[in-house]
Amino acid sequence: MRKVKPLIIGGILAASLAAAPMLASCGGDINNDEYRDDLVVVDDGSADDGGAAAATAEKDASDQAKEAASEEAAPEEAAPEETPAQDSAEAADTPPEQRPIAENLAATVSGIISSYGANASVTYTSLSDLDDYATFAVDGSEPHVSASMIKLAIMAEVFDQVNSGYLALEDSYTVQESDIVGGTGTLQGSGPGTQLSLSDLVRHMIAESDNVATNMLIDLVGMDAVNEEAVKLGLNATSLQRYMMDTDAQAAGIENHMSSDDAAVILILIANGEFYTPELSQLATDFLSQQTDAGGIAPSLSSGETFAHKTGTLTNVRHDAGIVQGEAPYVLSVFVEGTDEGSALSLMGEVTTAIETARANGEVA
């Protein structure tokens, strides 16, 4: 059964709220106790649930019959004071109107995923109003082979070290022969001896998904440090285990992992100016806005919206996650595995269109 989890957020979305700590602020103490009551899980019910409901109804009917018999046997006792009709009317008006809508949209997205037969996850969070039930995830906490989405976590550790004073954005680094690998990016064509600032390395890693820059940054900050920062941020499904283009590690089944929720956590921090500092948040936004891969979510966005995002691609793996910038901004993260690239891109388009339509109709913020 596909898990459909609308999430009601009072602050920042954290991955897997049922099990992960919530990040109150980047670099601060982690405590999500105040957010745990905000998680809403949609369940289609089960035989056990139905049996319990029936038993409860039968017990209620039995209790009512006993009360009626008691009243007939003791007419001299005063009738219980009636609850004012106003109270019940007020109670009927209290359920938030947006909740069923968020659930319906999540169900629509889940149906789209099922129609493709893919292993896919979607996380959506409105940035214009986080208190109206306009956030949901479909299998959002499920780990996926990350492809280049892991580069978001590497950027997080680099910026954490910049914020802590261990690194500086203007620091200069030289590309070595051993750094040259294939795959995406332009630095492999620049050759050894090329000098770049730390800021340039991060930009190449995010905007071009450059593998040379990525491996240089992993060497600089360390794999363990990246994974420790992921834990600190509450990224439960994120794990950096190999370098880019390490075919020997891939052949041995060693892969990097991330979830759509985890990507959303980082993007929400960036969008809210809480990615370590407002300045680093803006720099990250600039790099994401320079993304050279325009496939996936972007083609299905409405006119006037721009997309600051990161993509990831491997054989039968296609991910896209970013910040949709417009009058009512939001974060959308779609991870797809187990299908060809064309089908994955089509799935992303249908999911995006469903969300954009619901927003245009005022059904969700």
What does the model show?
It is a single chain. A six-stranded antiparallel sheet has the order 1-3-2-10-9-8, sandwiched between helices. Strands 4-7 form a two-stranded antiparallel sheet. A two-stranded antiparallel sheet has the order 5-6. The protein contains twelve helices and ten strands. It starts with a strand and ends in a 5-residue tail after the last helix. It is α+β, with helices and mostly antiparallel strands and 365 residues long. The chain has a single domain, classed as Beta-lactamase (3-Layer(aba) Sandwich). Keywords: Hydrolase, Signal. This is Serine hydrolase.
Distance between the termini: 27 Å
H/E order of the elements? EHHHEEEHEHEHHHHEHHEEEH
Largest sheet: 6 strands, antiparallel
What is the count of structural domains? 1
Report the strand count: 10
Q: In order across it, which strands form the biggest sheet?
A: 1-3-2-10-9-8
On the 0 to 100 scale, the average pLDDT is 80
Report the portion of residues in β strands.
Answer: 5-15%
Total count of helical runs of at least 4 residues: 12
CATH architecture: 3-Layer(aba) Sandwich
Give the name of the CATH superfamily: DD-peptidase/beta-lactamase superfamily
- The CATH topology is Beta-lactamase
Helix content: 40-55%
CATH classification, class level: Alpha Beta
Would you tell me the structural class of the helices and strands?
A: alpha+beta
Bulk shape:
globular
